[in-house]
């Protein structure tokens, strides 16, 4: 998501100093959100057996309660949504700049557009990865619902 934001900001505002200005803020937000999520998971799982970890002979995984599902699904869906909006807007901007580039071709513009397109492809892969991590969560959550909830 950070790469999506950086790329979008650079293309919209045309300011290449975004990473220098926002690096500490972005790092702090990432670390603080991770710490808050971990502490809340520890506090909420103190009452469960084995701290909410299901132990089997093959692996260990988190318990399948609704809190764990929604605690992962809601932030991930919001990240996908925001990154998708920024990536789509970036794609439109890059497409318009590519059309302008066809009129007046030069080497430095081609290099800059190539870098931006590679970052845009990386953002698309990131969104795809986030969506692929949600699919097993939704399938396992759906299979744990009681049969009376089906129509």
TrEMBL record:
<protein>
    <submittedName>
        <fullName>1210_t:CDS:1</fullName>
    </submittedName>
</protein>
<keyword id="KW-1133">Transmembrane helix</keyword>
<keyword id="KW-0472">Membrane</keyword>
<keyword id="KW-0812">Transmembrane</keyword>
<feature type="transmembrane region" description="Helical">
    <location>
        <begin position="22"/>
        <end position="44"/>
    </location>
</feature>
<feature type="transmembrane region" description="Helical">
    <location>
        <begin position="116"/>
        <end position="139"/>
    </location>
</feature>
<feature type="transmembrane region" description="Helical">
    <location>
        <begin position="72"/>
        <end position="95"/>
    </location>
</feature>
């Amino acid at each position: 998501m950070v790469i999506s934001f950086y790329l979008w900001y650079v293309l919209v505002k045309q300011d290449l100093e975004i990473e220098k200005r926002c690096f500490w803020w972005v790092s702090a937000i990432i670390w603080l959100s991770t710490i808050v999520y971990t502490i809340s998971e520890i506090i909420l799982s103190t009452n469960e057996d084995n701290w909410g970890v299901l132990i089997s002979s093959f692996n260990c995984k988190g318990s399948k309660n609704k809190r764990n599902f929604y605690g992962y699904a809601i932030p991930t869906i919001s990240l996908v949504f925001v990154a998708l909006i920024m990536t789509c807007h970036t794609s439109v901007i890059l497409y318009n700049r590519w059309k302008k580039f066809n009129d007046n071709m030069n080497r430095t513009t081609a290099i800059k557009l190539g870098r931006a397109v590679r970052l845009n492809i990386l953002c698309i892969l990131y969104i795809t990865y986030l969506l692929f991590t949600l699919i097993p969560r939704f399938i396992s959550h759906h299979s744990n619902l009681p049969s009376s909830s089906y129509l």
